[in-house]
């Protein structure tokens, strides 16, 4: 007799440039059970207002028994330039900044410690003193993006040409369901 496996669901938010590619990449990672394109830490609760300080992000629900915050950060670093400020690929502006957001302080502490270790390792390895530009902040406001932005590259794969993530990397962890 087998017991039904119980998921240990946790949620974290990743901002890494245009959310279409970030969502497409994250949704195929081991342990990720759900993603939603959205906006983090803006001033309003509407997608119909002028830019209000938000970062394009992907709400990422994951099974903490399968994948850790640290694992997710290492995956995330595969698709972004961690030193770039307000730009990923051709997407330029504050809304395209990189960030990690959570409503849970322990997530933020794990993220900060992980990023600090990666920064130290890279600086030692490359003999530099560069600062990783990923903001790590409490989530103060989240709103889902409009329907046309949800799972955009799954529904409209030809829109990949707008994405800063190379196609082979975008689907690196996608399992073939054939």
Structure in words:
The protein has 178 residues and is α+β, with helices and mostly antiparallel strands. It has 5 helices and 8 strands, in the order βαββαβββαββαα. The chain has a 6-stranded mixed sheet with strand order 7-6-1-3-2-8, covered by helices on one side. Strands 4-5 form a two-stranded antiparallel sheet. It is globular. The chain starts with 8 loop residues before the first strand and ends in an 8-residue tail after the last helix. The mean pLDDT is 94.
Compile the SSE list and pairings.
Blueprint: E1 9-16, H1 19-26, E2 32-40, E3 55-63, H2 69-76, E4 87-88, E5 91-92, E6 98-102, H3 105-126, E7 135-138, E8 142-144, H4 152-155, H5 167-170
Parallel strand pairs: 6-7
Antiparallel strand pairs: 1-3, 1-6, 2-3, 2-8, 4-5
Report the portion of residues in β strands: 15-25%
Q: Count the beta strands.
A: 8
Q: Tell me the major beta sheet.
A: 6 strands, mixed
Helicity level: 25-40%
Annotation field: number of helices: 5
Q: Which term fits the overall shape?
A: globular
Distance between the termini: 29 Å
- The helix-strand sequence is EHEEHEEEHEEHH
């Amino acid at each position: 007799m087998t017991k039904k496996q119980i998921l240990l669901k946790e949620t974290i938010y990743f901002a890494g440039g245009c959310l279409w590619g970030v969502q497409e990449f994250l949704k195929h990672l081991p342990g990720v059970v759900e993603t939603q394109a959205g906006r983090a830490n803006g001033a309003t609760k509407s997608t119909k207002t002028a830019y209000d300080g938000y970062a394009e992000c992907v709400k990422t629900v994951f099974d903490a028994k399968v994948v850790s915050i640290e694992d997710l950060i290492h995956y995330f670093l595969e698709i972004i330039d961690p030193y770039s400020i307000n730009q990923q690929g051709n997407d330029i502006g504050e809304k395209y900044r990189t960030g990690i957001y959570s409503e849970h302080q322990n997530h933020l502490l794990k993220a900060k410690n992980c990023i600090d270790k990666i920064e130290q390792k890279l600086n030692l390895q490359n003999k530099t003193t560069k600062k990783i530009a990923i903001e790590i902040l409490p989530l103060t406001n989240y709103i889902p993006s409009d329907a046309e932005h949800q799972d955009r590259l799954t529904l409209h794969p030809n829109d990949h040409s707008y994405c800063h993530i190379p196609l082979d990397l975008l689907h690196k962890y996608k399992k073939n369901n054939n």
